[in-house]
Amino acid sequence: MGKDSKPKDAKGKDAKGKGKQAAGSSGGDDGGGKGGKGKGGKSADGLGTCTYVKARHVLCEKQGKINEAYKKLQDGWLDNGDKVPPAEFAKVAQEYSECPSGKKGGDLGWFPRGKMAGPFQEVAFNTPVGAVSAPFKSTHGYHFILCEGRKN
C-alpha cells in the first residue's frame, strides 16, 4: 500500500499532512520500509514514532520549586533560543530534583514506550532531541524533561 492509496486533501496531502514527496526522504522509500515499529511509520522529525527515548528530568513535589528550577534554564539558555547542555541540566537536576535520579543529574537512561506513566511518557516521547519540555504535572509531582535521544 503506497502513499497514493491514502486519502488526500485539496492540496494533495495525505491525512497526516505529508505531500507526495516527504521532505528529507531519500532513496525512493515509500514509508513502508523504515523501522516498521512506530505507529503509522516515521514522521519527518521522529516525534511520537520511536520505541525508546533517552531522557533526563527534574521532579519536584511543589509547583513553585519546579518553576524556580525551570527559570534557571530559561535565564541561562532557553530565553536565548539555545539548547541546554546536558551537563548544565544535570546541575539543575542535582540541585532541585526530589527524584533519586537527581543524584545522577536526572538521568533516566533509555526507556521503552509503555514503561513510564501517562503524561510523563507523552512528554518524553514528544519532546524533540536536545529540547527541554515545559513543566508539567504527573501523579508523582511536577516535572520537566530534557530529551537526549530516540531510537527504535
Automatic annotation (TrEMBL):
Organism annotation: Miscanthus lutarioriparius
Family, as annotated: Belongs to the PpiC/parvulin rotamase family. PIN4 subfamily.
UniProt-listed Enzyme Commission number(s): 5.2.1.8
SUPFAM superfamilies: FKBP-like
A Pfam family annotated for this UniProt entry: Rotamase
Keywords: Isomerase, Rotamase
PANTHER family: PTHR45995
Gly residues composition-biased segments: 25-35
Keyword Chaperone: no
Catalytic activity of the protein: [protein]-peptidylproline (omega=180) = [protein]-peptidylproline (omega=0)
EC primary class: isomerase
Region (Disordered): 1-46
Protein name as catalogued: Peptidyl-prolyl cis-trans isomerase
